[in-house]
Amino acid sequence: MKKLLIVTALGIFTLGFSQNYYNDYRGSIASINWGQVAIYLGLNKVQINQLTLLNNRYPDYNSWNRIYGREPNRWYADRYYAMEKIMTPEQYRRFYARYYEGQNPRLKYDNDYRKYRGRPIPHDRGFNDRHDGHHDGHHR
Predict the structure, then answer these.
(1) Mean pLDDT, the chain cut into blocks of 10 residues (140 residues total)
(2) What is the pLDDT of residue 110?
(3) 59-94-91 Cα angle (round to 5)
(4) What one-character DSSP code corresponds to residue 73?
(5) Radius of gyration in angstroms for the set of CA atoms belonging to the chain, rounded to a whole number
(6) Burial, 22: exposed, middle or buried (Cβ in 10 Å; 0-12, 13-18, 19+)?
(7) In the prediction, which pLDDT does 56 show?
(8) How is residue 101 annotated by DSSP?
(9) Helix axes 89-100, 34-41, angle to 10 degrees
(10) Which whole-number Å values give the CA distances from 138 to 38, 81, 91, 102, 131, in the listed order?
(11) Maximum separation of any 2 CA atoms in the chain, in Å
(12) Which of 8, 22, 99, 104 is most open to solvent, judged by the fewest CB atoms within 10 Å of its CB?
Protein backbone atom coordinates (compact mmCIF):
# COMPACT_ATOMS: atom_id res chain seq x y z
CA MET A 1 0.00 0.00 0.00
CA LYS A 2 2.85 2.35 0.86
CA LYS A 3 4.47 1.71 -2.55
CA LEU A 4 1.20 2.42 -4.31
CA LEU A 5 0.88 5.77 -2.55
CA ILE A 6 4.46 6.72 -3.41
CA VAL A 7 4.01 5.76 -7.08
CA THR A 8 0.71 7.68 -7.25
CA ALA A 9 2.24 10.76 -5.62
CA LEU A 10 5.23 10.60 -7.97
CA GLY A 11 2.92 10.29 -10.97
CA ILE A 12 0.89 13.31 -9.92
CA PHE A 13 4.06 15.34 -9.29
CA THR A 14 5.49 14.33 -12.70
CA LEU A 15 2.24 15.16 -14.45
CA GLY A 16 2.18 18.62 -12.88
CA PHE A 17 5.85 19.17 -13.67
CA SER A 18 5.57 18.28 -17.35
CA GLN A 19 2.20 20.06 -17.61
CA ASN A 20 4.01 23.27 -16.63
CA TYR A 21 6.47 22.72 -19.48
CA TYR A 22 3.57 22.15 -21.89
CA ASN A 23 1.97 25.36 -20.67
CA ASP A 24 5.26 27.16 -21.38
CA TYR A 25 5.33 25.57 -24.84
CA ARG A 26 1.80 26.75 -25.63
CA GLY A 27 2.51 30.16 -24.14
CA SER A 28 5.59 30.61 -26.30
CA ILE A 29 3.34 30.19 -29.34
CA ALA A 30 0.37 32.21 -28.13
CA SER A 31 2.49 35.13 -26.92
CA ILE A 32 3.59 36.02 -30.46
CA ASN A 33 1.43 37.38 -33.26
CA TRP A 34 2.64 35.14 -36.08
CA GLY A 35 0.88 37.21 -38.74
CA GLN A 36 2.96 40.21 -37.71
CA VAL A 37 6.07 38.01 -37.70
CA ALA A 38 5.36 36.96 -41.29
CA ILE A 39 4.95 40.57 -42.41
CA TYR A 40 7.96 41.88 -40.46
CA LEU A 41 10.28 39.19 -41.78
CA GLY A 42 8.82 39.00 -45.29
CA LEU A 43 8.15 35.27 -45.00
CA ASN A 44 6.96 33.49 -48.11
CA LYS A 45 3.91 31.18 -48.25
CA VAL A 46 5.97 28.02 -47.78
CA GLN A 47 7.64 29.45 -44.66
CA ILE A 48 4.29 30.61 -43.27
CA ASN A 49 2.80 27.16 -43.84
CA GLN A 50 5.80 25.48 -42.18
CA LEU A 51 5.56 27.79 -39.15
CA THR A 52 1.82 27.13 -38.91
CA LEU A 53 2.47 23.38 -38.96
CA LEU A 54 5.18 23.81 -36.33
CA ASN A 55 2.90 25.90 -34.12
CA ASN A 56 0.11 23.31 -34.42
CA ARG A 57 2.32 20.24 -33.99
CA TYR A 58 1.22 19.49 -30.41
CA PRO A 59 -2.32 20.83 -29.95
CA ASP A 60 -2.87 19.11 -26.62
CA TYR A 61 -0.88 17.92 -23.65
CA ASN A 62 -1.08 14.22 -24.55
CA SER A 63 0.42 14.69 -28.02
CA TRP A 64 3.21 16.82 -26.57
CA ASN A 65 3.79 14.44 -23.65
CA ARG A 66 4.31 11.43 -25.96
CA ILE A 67 7.38 13.16 -27.36
CA TYR A 68 8.66 15.21 -24.41
CA GLY A 69 7.31 13.43 -21.34
CA ARG A 70 10.71 11.97 -20.39
CA GLU A 71 12.66 15.16 -21.22
CA PRO A 72 10.16 18.01 -20.96
CA ASN A 73 12.74 20.77 -21.29
CA ARG A 74 13.96 19.44 -24.66
CA TRP A 75 11.09 21.15 -26.52
CA TYR A 76 12.87 24.52 -26.32
CA ALA A 77 15.86 23.48 -28.37
CA ASP A 78 13.77 21.39 -30.79
CA ARG A 79 11.32 24.20 -31.45
CA TYR A 80 13.85 26.98 -31.99
CA TYR A 81 16.08 24.76 -34.12
CA ALA A 82 13.06 23.97 -36.32
CA MET A 83 12.32 27.69 -36.60
CA GLU A 84 15.90 28.32 -37.69
CA LYS A 85 15.53 25.74 -40.43
CA ILE A 86 12.29 27.32 -41.69
CA MET A 87 13.65 30.88 -41.84
CA THR A 88 16.67 32.18 -43.68
CA PRO A 89 19.64 33.04 -41.46
CA GLU A 90 18.88 36.76 -41.80
CA GLN A 91 15.19 36.29 -41.02
CA TYR A 92 15.99 34.23 -37.96
CA ARG A 93 18.50 36.82 -36.69
CA ARG A 94 15.89 39.55 -37.09
CA PHE A 95 13.22 37.41 -35.41
CA TYR A 96 15.56 36.54 -32.57
CA ALA A 97 16.66 40.13 -32.03
CA ARG A 98 13.14 41.57 -32.10
CA TYR A 99 11.14 38.98 -30.22
CA TYR A 100 13.77 37.72 -27.77
CA GLU A 101 16.01 40.77 -27.58
CA GLY A 102 19.02 38.56 -28.26
CA GLN A 103 18.34 36.41 -25.19
CA ASN A 104 17.72 32.72 -24.82
CA PRO A 105 14.06 32.39 -25.95
CA ARG A 106 13.19 30.19 -22.99
CA LEU A 107 14.79 32.57 -20.52
CA LYS A 108 13.18 35.62 -22.14
CA TYR A 109 9.74 34.05 -22.28
CA ASP A 110 9.88 32.60 -18.78
CA ASN A 111 11.18 35.81 -17.22
CA ASP A 112 8.59 37.96 -19.00
CA TYR A 113 5.85 35.49 -18.14
CA ARG A 114 6.87 35.22 -14.51
CA LYS A 115 7.98 38.81 -13.94
CA TYR A 116 4.73 39.53 -12.19
CA ARG A 117 5.65 36.84 -9.68
CA GLY A 118 8.94 38.63 -9.08
CA ARG A 119 11.30 35.71 -9.55
CA PRO A 120 13.42 35.21 -12.67
CA ILE A 121 14.42 31.68 -13.61
CA PRO A 122 18.08 30.63 -13.70
CA HIS A 123 19.93 30.51 -17.01
CA ASP A 124 19.61 27.23 -18.94
CA ARG A 125 23.15 26.31 -19.97
CA GLY A 126 21.77 23.62 -22.30
CA PHE A 127 20.49 26.25 -24.71
CA ASN A 128 22.84 28.31 -26.84
CA ASP A 129 21.87 31.95 -26.26
CA ARG A 130 23.54 33.35 -29.33
CA HIS A 131 22.55 30.68 -31.86
CA ASP A 132 25.59 31.35 -33.97
CA GLY A 133 27.69 28.25 -33.58
CA HIS A 134 25.54 25.28 -32.76
CA HIS A 135 24.24 22.19 -34.49
CA ASP A 136 25.75 21.69 -37.92
CA GLY A 137 26.86 25.25 -38.70
CA HIS A 138 24.09 25.75 -41.23
CA HIS A 139 24.00 29.50 -40.58
CA ARG A 140 27.60 30.32 -41.36
Answers:
(1) 46 59 87 94 98 96 93 88 95 89 64 52 42 43
(2) 61
(3) 70
(4) G
(5) 17
(6) buried
(7) 96
(8) T
(9) 130
(10) 22, 11, 14, 19, 11
(11) 60
(12) 8
